[in-house]
Amino acid sequence: LSESLEQMQQEQMKSSSKKGSCKKPKPGQGGSSMQNIRQMQQALNKKMKEMQKQMKDGQKPGQKPGKKKGDGAQQNGSGEQMSEEMARMAAQQELIRQKLQEYQNALKKSGNGKQAGELNKTVQDMEKNETELVNNLLLQESIMRQEEILTRLLEAEKAEREQKQEETREAKQG
To answer: Are 59 and 68 in contact (CB under 8 A)?
Structure first.
């Protein structure tokens, strides 16, 4: 499991570096990194909800509704596929958390320690979800936590946007 997690992290790092994201944007500059983080988190939330629905319906990931398999060996295969998908989601959550921590560090360096401190709970919740996903747990509590994470990221994105507008106003006045 840890090998597949490492492999997926490497693949994600490769794919993110191909997108030209070598430059680390400072908070409030460039392509709003908080917006990117939020969009990644939103996509992960969607995947987790779909996975939970499939688990309730007794389907394996990617399987079309109505195609249930009764064979025990095939059921085992779907469990393995489910574990792989959860490992992928855990790796994705870890990547998002790391990006958020980088963003948090950039905030601290630019003198926005208060704003950075507000993201601590979000980072902790992301770590809890990572652990649950690695342990093949997808609870209603996990989904609720994902919603809270997304809400806090939206609030942070709004704060970033407002700060950017404030800086623009100050620059125009001065």
So the answer is: yes
| Furthest CA-CA distance within the chain | 73
What are the distances in angstroms from CA 64 to CA 10, 52, 154, 162, 172?
A: 30, 15, 32, 44, 56
SS (H, E, C) 67-123: CCCCCHHHHHHHHHHHHHHHHHHHHHHHHHHHHHHHHHHHHHHCCCHHHHHCCHHHH
Q: Which two tokens stand for residue 76?
A: 């085992």
Do 145 and 45 touch, CB atoms closer than 8 A? no
How far is 73 from 66, CA to CA, in rounded Å?
A: 19
pLDDT value of residue 20: 46
Burial class (CB in 10 A: 0-12, 13-18, 19+), 47: middle
Reported confidence tier of residue 44, pLDDT bands at 50, 70, 90: very high
* pTM listed for this prediction: 0.71
112, amino acid identity: N
